Automatic annotation (TrEMBL):
It comes from Bosea eneae. The lineage of its organism: Bacteria, Pseudomonadati, Pseudomonadota, Alphaproteobacteria, Hyphomicrobiales. Gene3D superfamilies: Vaccinia Virus protein VP39. This is DUF938 domain-containing protein. It comes from the Bacteria. Pfam families: DUF938.
Length: 202
């Protein structure tokens, strides 16, 4: 048993947090509020809040168990720039937050219905200032890049779990973002056939 058994552990966070951090150092503003959508266990929120003490981090998730985990991790870290988690469903027509200087969304787009990505981009366009970044991380399909075998297997497993899940075409996400007022994506190849994708509010 851990000290607080409401804390969840996502092994992938240990593997990807350093590569993500390296990208975020060139993406996040010097100060302001960073909203993390679909924070999951909360381990990323704690790690990034510790790495960027001049930024305020607002974690969120639609799942009650995840919210408890986030707050348990946050409580243990005692970071002054990490807020309590808020319940946020990306598909909701209204979000419980009115503005953000940057938005992070790690490993949600492929493990949620397409409506969640639509909601994420629609709300990000309303919350972010001009130039504000929307950072996405995860595996994607790309028209001009063969799908890695491991990603094909992962995609199949996701669709078996829920037909509304699965790897999205990066071009489709970019088209959605463009229609909402974002510029072209800044794409960085990441370990394990993932991508960092940054859209900036035009």
């Amino acid at each position: 048993m851990t000290q607080d058994d409401s804390r969840q552990h996502a092994p992938a966070t240990q593997r990807n947090r350093e590569p993500i951090l390296a990208v975020l150092r060139d993406v996040l503003p010097a100060q302001g509020l960073v909203l993390e959508v679909a924070s999951g266990s909360g381990e990323h929120a704690v790690y990034f809040a510790g790495a960027f003490p001049n930024l305020i981090f607002q974690p969120s998730d639609p799942d009650q168990a995840a919210l408890a985990s986030i707050d348990a991790w946050a409580g243990e870290s005692a970071l002054p720039n990490l807020r309590s988690a808020i319940r946020l469903d990306a598909t909701a027509p209204r979000w419980p937050i009115t503005e953000a200087d940057a938005i992070l969304c790690i490993n949600m787009v492929h493990i949620s219905p397409w409506a969640a990505t639509e909601g994420l981009i629609r709300q990000a366009a309303q919350l972010l200032p001009v130039g504000g970044p929307l950072y996405l991380y995860g595996p994607y399909r790309q028209h001009d890049v063969p799908l890695a075998a491991s990603n094909a297997v992962f995609d199949d497993s996701l669709r078996r779990r829920n037909p509304k899940w699965g790897l999205r075409e990066l071009e489709a996400v970019a088209e959605l973002a463009s229609a909402a007022g974002f510029g072209e994506p800044e794409v960085t190849a990441m370990p394990a056939n993932n991508l960092s994708v940054v859209f900036r509010k035009a």
